[in-house]
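Renewal narrative, Specific Aim 1. Our central claim is that a sequence can be written position by position from structural information alone. The example that follows is taken directly from our test logs and has not been curated for this report. It begins with the structure tokens describing the chain, in the order in which they were read.
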């Protein structure tokens, strides 16, 4: 059938890892080299059409700068899905991602579907600082989806949202 289901999805991760760029790529298929840091949070919607249902994502793109950290629970509370983003050229951002995963597992919805996205994969050839195997291993141990993505060249961006959509329970 063609049931339409609405789900709240939140993006979390350190500043400048590319959360807003991933959302803008997914929603508008655009990319900006000079994307402004998010203030507070941004709200966007986008649908994914699956074989037997349509998933309408209500997306909260949070601000990664430290001063906004305390706002995060407002955005992940009640979220059915979360994308935790790190930058494959920034080892510190992978540590940040792990701490977001921990927080979601402790304080998020018990059934929240978490995807870990290693963004800026277009730069991995020369500037990689986060090992793919290590990230995959961590994701497997923690029951997370994992993709390396690029908002710049669009690699795996649609796939990331589609794979989350497939796993959401369509009541
Ligand atoms: P906050 O809003 O502060 O939390 O940052 P953010 O995670 O939303 O990062 P944002 O999307 O603003 O991107 C930060 C910078 O990284 C921008 O200058 C982007 O152009 C760049 N960027 C984002 N995604 C990619 C990518 O996939 N590849 C490359 N090469 N650059 C990217
Ligand atoms: Mg942003």
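The sequence written for that structure reads:
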């Amino acid at each position: 059938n063609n049931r339409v289901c609405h789900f709240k999805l939140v993006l979390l991760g350190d500043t400048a890892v590319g959360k807003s760029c991933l959302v803008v790529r997914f929603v508008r298929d655009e990319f900006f080299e000079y994307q402004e840091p998010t203030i507070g949070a941004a709200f966007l919607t986008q649908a994914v059409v699956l074989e037997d249902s349509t998933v309408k994502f209500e997306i909260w793109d949070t601000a990664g700068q430290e001063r906004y950290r305390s706002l995060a629970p407002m955005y992940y509370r009640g979220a059915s899905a979360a994308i935790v983003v790190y930058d494959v050229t920034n080892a510190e951002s992978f540590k940040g991602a792990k701490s977001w995963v921990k927080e979601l597992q402790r304080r998020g919805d018990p059934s929240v579907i978490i995807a870990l996205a290693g963004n800026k994969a277009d730069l991995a050839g020369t500037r990689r600082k986060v090992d793919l195997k290590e990230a995959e291993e961590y994701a497997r141990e923690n029951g997370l989806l994992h993709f390396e993505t690029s908002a710049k060249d669009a690699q795996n961006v649609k796939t990331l949202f589609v794979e989350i959509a497939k796993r959401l329970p369509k009541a």
